[in-house]
Every structure is written in structure tokens, then in C-alpha cells.
Design goal:
Elements: E1 5-8, E2 21-26, E3 34-37, E4 48-53, H1 60-67, E5 73-77, H2 88-91, E6 95-99, H3 108-120, H4 123-138, E7 142-147, E8 152-157, E9 164-168, E10 177-179, E11 184-188, E12 204-210, E13 214-218, H5 225-235, E14 243-248, E15 251-257, H6 263-275, E16 282-288, E17 312-317, E18 325-331, E19 334-337, E20 343-346, H7 347-361
Parallel strand pairs: 1-3, 2-4, 2-5, 5-6, 6-10
Antiparallel strand pairs: 7-8, 7-19, 8-12, 9-11, 11-16, 12-14, 13-18, 14-15, 16-17, 17-18, 19-20
Length: 367
């Protein structure tokens, strides 16, 4: 067991300025991973600190409503526990950040890494990145996702049909809840937690390339863990051997491995789609913008916020508990472009930034 990680409550910028009570909620077997300074005054900046354990059989929302001050800043880190989102009534005016540590098998080392990463995340820069993203999207009818390495290209007309844009990045406002570490933007065909098999991102058509660590979430049943791991291992072929999805009106029509090495992933995904057609729906088109958190080479839910140097496209299929598993795939070589070809995020934006930096360093030297 690694030594407990010592952090200060005020380290987590997504809560904004320290005020009132900081509350840390952990599971019964997860508290040994960290020691958080929540003491009143001193380095924490908070007037009061509270550490609670989420009892077995009690929901996070129930604990918040019964035991946490109404204006508290709350961090929930509960390894091994699947946490359902509290209702708006249960959350009230509290600010809540939740490390998803139950739907995928995070180790103590993983938890400690994400705590350190969140403490190092530049929340102001992340908020500006999100604002720039939504401004560019709003002024471009059509968006294009391209993968220069494979030649795949998909078009997303976000004016075709209903869609909901989501932000899990930047500072929290009272009454808001957010993933931890923060850093994900996305678009879904319905409210993100309310899966409808008939809902579609109707404007999404073309080919998308999966390349990077997959994520396989399960719900609360521990009996699903063995099959979760088996599916993750099969899908992990896409780390080195990309797979292409042919998508029409927001649904997967065909799965093609780009090389023979990608066949295990393509076959595993095809079996899933054949057994449950709801997995054919591209439920979420996501965009990771966390520039601090690296993608851990394991089945880790927080990998979804991975943004690399200029943002990363990712896809979501299925949603628990409607489907047995929820899948997310990084598209690390892809770029998101506006109608005029301007990169919003991804590989092409990273290249453009690199060129700009090289020109600057060779120029007049003014800053």
C-alpha cells in the first residue's frame, strides 16, 4: 500500500475561492489513499473541514442532504463504489466534484495520480478553452472530424435534429456537479444521463477512427467485473491497431479494423452490437480538454478527460444501467475542424501550435 498522499483542500481550483466548509467523502475502504488538509483556517483557506465515510447502502445524495452543510464544497472519492448523481434537490447550493472510482477498477495509485493531476490543473485556462470551443462551434454549421493517418473523415451537422451540449470543465457554480479531474466537453442527442435508444446525433455521418485506450464502465453489480475486464482486454487492441467505424445518422453501420492486429477489438465490438443494438448509437461525441491529466494505460474512467497538448476527440457507446456496459474510445489522432477547416482541437491544432512556437522562438525575441 503506497503512503497516503497529502493534499490541501484549496488545491482544487474547480471549486473556486475557498469559503465555508470543505467536505471530503470517501468509501469505507478508500480513505487510506490520501490525507487531505481540511482543517479550519491555515493552508486550506476554509473556515471548516469535514471528512465523511459513505456507508454501505446509502446514496451520495442522501448523505449530502442529511450530513453536509448547504453551501459546502464537496469532493467525493469513493474507490470501489458506483456513485449515482444526486438530484438537484439533494445537491442544493453545494458544489460537488466526483472522481468516478467505481465504474472502472481504479487502484490506489490511480486515485493518487488523479488527485495530484486535479491539483495541478489550470482551471482558468480550461475555462477559456471551453469558451473558445463553444464559440467556434456556435458559429460553424458543420464540423468535421478527420484522422490524417487513416484518411477517415466524418461530418457533424449539429443543426440537424436535437442535441444537448455538456460542459464538465472549468470552475463550478453553486448547485453544480462535475467530474474530477475536470476537463470534458460533449454533445449528446438527449440529456446525458437519460438514454433514449431512438435518440440520435442525426447530423453525424462518415468514418471515425478509434485509436487509444478504451474505457469500459460497468454499473453497481460486482458480478459484471470479470466480463468487464475481458471486454476491455479485447478492445485494447485499438491502442496500437486502430479500428474504423462507419456511421450514418449517428448510428454505427460497419466496423473495420485497419490492420489484422485490430481484428480482436473489431470482433468484440461487433458481438456487442449484435447482442444489443443499443450500442450502435453514438450516444456521446466527447472532447477531452484536460492538458494536465495523462491517459493511464489501464481501464480508467477519468481517461475521458484526457486532452493532450490540444484536445482529444472521444466517443461514447451505451450508458449504464440501461446497457450492461458503457464504452468510451479515444480518437487520439483525430482533429475537429470548423466549416472553413480551422482546427478547434486535436492533432492538427497541436501541429499548428508547434509551428507557431517555432516561428516565435526564431523571431525578434519580444515577449
Amino acid at each position: 500500500m503506497p503512503s497516503p498522499l497529502e493534499l490541501t483542500a484549496s488545491s482544487f481550483g474547480q471549486f473556486g475561492e475557498p469559503a465555508g466548509t470543505f467536505c471530503l467523502i470517501t468509501s469505507e475502504d478508500g480513505s487510506d489513499a490520501f490525507a487531505l488538509d481540511t482543517a479550519a483556517g491555515g493552508r486550506s483557506g476554509y473556515s471548516d473541514g469535514l471528512m465523511l465515510t459513505l456507508p454501505a447502502g446509502r446514496s451520495l445524495g442522501e448523505l449530502l442532504a442529511r450530513s453536509v452543510p448547504p453551501d459546502a464544497h464537496v469532493l467525493a472519492v469513493c474507490p470501489g463504489r458506483f456513485l449515482d448523481s444526486p438530484s438537484p434537490e439533494q445537491l442544493g447550493k453545494r458544489k460537488l466534484a466526483v472522481l468516478p472510482a467505481g465504474s472502472t477498477p481504479l487502484t490506489v495509485e490511480h486515485v493518487q495520480y488523479y488527485l495530484r493531476s486535479a491539483a495541478e490543473t489550470a482551471i482558468g485556462l480550461q475555462a477559456r478553452t471551453a469558451d473558445d470551443f463553444f464559440e467556434r462551434v456556435a458559429t460553424s454549421e458543420r464540423l468535421t472530424i478527420v484522422d490524417d493517418s487513416s484518411g477517415s473523415e466524418a461530418e457533424f451537422d449539429h443543426t440537424a435534429g436535437e442535441c444537448v451540449w455538456n460542459q464538465q470543465a472549468g470552475p463550478l457554480e453553486p448547485g453544480e456537479q462535475q467530474i474530477f479531474p475536470p476537463g470534458k466537453l460533449s454533445v449528446t442527442a438527449n440529456e446525458i444521463t437519460a438514454f433514449r435508444p431512438d435518440a440520435r446525433l442525426l447530423g453525424l455521418n462518415g468514418e471515425l477512427t478509434l485509436h487509444g485506450w478504451p474505457i469500459v464502465h460497468r454499473h453497481a453489480d460486482p458480478a459484471d467485473a470479470a466480463d468487464q475486464q475481458k471486454l476491455f482486454e479485447a478492445l485494447s487492441a485499438v491502442v496500437s491497431h486502430p479500428v474504423t467505424l462507419r456511421v450514418a445518422a449517428g448510428a454505427v453501420e460497419r466496423i473495420t479494423p485497419q490492420t489484422s492486429g485490430g481484428r480482436p477489438a473489431a470482433e468484440a465490438l461487433q458481438r456487442l452490437l449484435d447482442d444489443d443494438p443499443r450500442y450502435r448509437v453514438i450516444w456521446e461525441l466527447g472532447f477531452g480538454i484536460n492538458a494536465t491529466t495523462e491517459a493511464i494505460p489501464a481501464n480508467c474512467g477519468p481517461n475521458e478527460v484526457y486532452g493532450g497538448p490540444a484536445g482529444t476527440v472521444n466517443l461514447g457507446l451505451g450508458i449504464t444501467p440501461t446497457t450492461r456496459f458503457a464504452l468510451a474510445f479515444l480518437c487520439r489522432r483525430s482533429s475537429l475542424l470548423t466549416s472553413d477547416g480551422t482546427p478547434v482541437l486535436g492533432a492538427r491544432k497541436a501541429v499548428r501550435r508547434g509551428r507557431m512556437q517555432r516561428v516565435s522562438s526564431a523571431g525578434c525575441g519580444c515577449h
